[in-house]
Amino acid sequence: MPKNFSASTVKDMTEGVIWRHLINFAFPLFIGNIFQQLYNTVDSIVVGNFVGADALGAVTSTIPVVITLIGLFIGLSMGASVVISQYFGAKDIKNLRKATHTAVVATVIMSLIISAIGYYSTPFLLRMMNTPPSVFKEAVVYLQIFSLGLGGTMLYNMGSGILRAVGDSKRPLYFLILASILNIFLDLLFVIKFESGVAGVAYATIIAQLVSGLIIFWRLFRSHEVHSLTWHEMKIDFAILRKIIKIGFPAGLQMALTSFSNVFVQAYINSYGAAATAGWGIYARVDAFVTLSTQSMSMAITTYVGQNAGARNPERIRLGLRECLKISLTISGTIIFFLYISAPFIASLFNRDEKVLYYAVLILRLNSIFDPFNVINQIHAGALRGVGDSKTPMLIMLGSFVVFRQIYLFIISRLTSSIYFIAIGYPVGWIVCCTLMLIHVKLSGWDKKIAALK
User: Fold this and answer.
1) Residue 3 region by backbone torsions, left for phi larger than 0, else alpha for psi between -120 and 50, else beta
2) What digits encode the pLDDT tens for the residues 12-54?
3) What are 311-356's pLDDT values in tens digits?
4) Would you give the distance in Å from CA 211 to the centre of its chain?
5) What whole-number distance in Å separates Cα of residue 61 and Cα of residue 263?
6) Is the dihedral of CA 76, 79, 85, 90 positive or negative?
7) What's the CA gap between 33 and 170, in Å, rounded?
């Protein structure tokens, strides 16, 4: 059994230059996240250009449902990553290995359950979103096929979460690049060569995701490092599972419920017609790329804080949070500037219909200028999760993104018929969340959590 922490693929963040650790860890994550987003974005570009606007609306309208289905699992992978990173920081090999194998077994069980729920609930969820009749049938086809392939997505996310916990963010990137290239090839093959439309891009996506999941687990089984997998250790340690769930469930519940509430946001947008649905879908695809740097830095600060929490180093945690915020806000501001200028060109990559482009550019420019608020939210949430507190960001984000946002949309939709005020439903939630998060960090939670580490 592996006994040492000195392997070149793992990174100890409890010592050394803080900003360098964060950048070196986050950059492969950022590139990897770009390729992961390419799965669905390539689907959208291919169907938007080779099938039509309705097919584009069918694919993009499923985004809130997809994120809802995998939200709880992503929370579990976050919880596992935090627990493993804390054991890594404490140099506790025995419990680190128990946590790793527990997380893997739980992943297999959850993938079967979530795939079944997604497949059978698809028509109900799409009706709940008021999906336009012209795209409904194809949306059902895409989402049901996608649901059957969720196991590959879950395997990849848990495997990469295990590697991130020990500071290795490079190998998940290599595997994901390979799978993304495969996805692009299969998209073009199924849609252009075999003319299989929406079903073709769905099959291309789940095949590529399964490949990335299997490759990363093949690597974990062949590894000789502290986080390697072996068949004879493949069992659940229920004490550690409870710890993973305690940290991961609030994050997953927040993500799932927020995404589920976005089903209702999508319903408001859908009421403006198929062009608005497709335009909003383009915004959602592009925004997923815009937020990648923030997501990557948030994951970096979670692992960084987790390792330093295990090493009982509160002052280093404080310094790391400040560095992470500076880096993230600088990157986000640069991306927003270029997005605002190039919005028409970017939107035209997906579809050339004038009405679709109108809505896409409008929403892209309107919402992007508020992204710094979301940066502050995500970095603070990541840091809090790193010390094991995922309940606080869950409550703040649910209150802002679900409760407040739905109240706002309910009221504003009855005061005006303008899509402008519906479209900023996301930013108003970000602003409320940012305000509450900063108040919490300033007045109570963060200082208490750091003090508890001493």
Assistant:
1) alpha
2) 777 888 888 888 878 877 887 777 676 667 767 777 666 666 6
3) 778 888 888 999 999 999 999 899 889 989 998 998 888 878 888 8
4) 19
5) 9
6) negative
7) 12
pTM (2 d.p.)? 0.68
Query: CA separation (Å) from 33 to 37, 297, 328, 416, 417?
Result: 6, 11, 15, 37, 36
Query: How many CB atoms are located within 10 Å of the residue 59 CB?
Result: 30
Q: In this structure, what are the phi and psi dihedrals at residue 17, rounded to the nearest 5 degrees?
A: -75, 125
Residues in the chain: 454
* Token pair recorded at residue 164: 């991130």
Contact between residue 322 and residue 47 where contact means Cβ atoms under 8 Å apart: no
Contacts of 264 (CB under 8 A, 6+ apart): 128, 129, 406, 409
Question: What distances in angstroms separate CA 145 from CA 62, 149, 199, one per listed residue?
Answer: 12, 7, 7
Closest residue by Cα to residue 445 from 407, 374, 389, 395: 389
Tokens 């209702």, residue located: 264
Q: Give me Rg for the CA atoms of the chain.
A: 21
